[in-house]
Design a protein that fits this description.
By secondary structure, this protein is mainly beta. Helices cover 14% and strands 41% of the residues. 26% of the residues are buried. The model is unreliable at 1-6 and 8-14 (pLDDT under 50).
Length: 312
Amino acid sequence: MLNRTACLLAATLLAGCSTYADKNIAALVPSGTPLGTQASHFCQHASYTTQEGAYRGSETLSPLLGFWAAHRPVLVRFNPESGDGFSVDYLDATLNRVGSRTFVKGTDYQVQADGTVEISTSSRCEGGGGPGLGCTRSHVRLAIDQTGSLAVIQSTGGAGIVGIVPVAGHSEYLSVFPKPDLSQGSLQQALAQCPEDQAAKRNALARAQQVTPTFAVGDVVVPYRHFDRTTQSLAAGPWPHLEGTKWRVDSITHMRIRMTLVAGEYEVSYPKKATHRAGEFATDFSSNNHYMAAKPYAGRLGQVFEEFRKDK
C-alpha cells in the first residue's frame, strides 16, 4: 500500500513513478494454501518465471524463503501450520534434509483472506544526511494455483524524496514451482517430474558455446568459413566479399577486432558499393546479430574467431 500511495502522490506532483507487474499475475486465481493439513512438496526449480527485459523473477524457490542454495536442494517441503507458525524443509537429491526454517505467524508471515501467505523479506530506510531519503519493502506471496503448483509473487516497492521531488517504484514478478505427483511412485521417482536447473543448463550451454581465440594481434589471418543463418551453423567457405583476402590483426578488444587488408580485394555494398585494395583499408569485425542469437554465450568476437584462421 505504501508504494501505491507514493506512486499516486508522485504522479500528482508530476514526479517520478515506475511500476511493473507480470501480466500473468492478474490471471492468477488462488485455489488453496501451501499450509494444508499435510506436508506439501514443491520443486526447487521453476516451470515459469518472469523473463521480460530487465524484469526477472527467481528461478529457484529456496532463496525466496531465505535459504540460499549452497547445498543444492531439489525439493522444498512445507509442513502443516501448527499453533503460531509453520516450518519448511529443504531436501537434496538423496532426500536428505540440508536445511530448515520455522516461520512465526504475525512476525514472519500473515495469512490473507484468500489463503495466500505473505512473507516479509526485507524493509529498510536510508538517507537523510544528503539530498535524498527513501524506504523500500519487499515481500513474497505464496498461493496454490489452478494446477496445484506453488505460485510465488515477488513484490518490491519503495518511495522517497530526491531534493524536493517525490519518487516511487513498484514491481511484481511471478515464479511457478510444480508439485510432484506422488501417487504414481516414490518421492525419489517424483523428482523426475521437476523442471531442470536453468542456471546449470545455462552454464553447460556457455561452456559448449565458448570460443577459444584462434589468432592474436600481429597475425595474418584468412577467412575460411561463414555462419549460415538458415542452418544456424558454420558452413565451409568464406563470405563471397571476403574470398581471396588476407588480413593483419591490428587490435583486439572485448567488442571488436580491428584488421587491415594486406592481400586481395574487399568489396562492400553498404553504405555504398566500393572495392578496397590491400594496404589501403582497415575495418572492424565482430559477431553479427544472427550469430549472437544462435550462440549468445560465444560473445562479440566468437564469430570472427570461428570464421578466420591464421594464414599458413
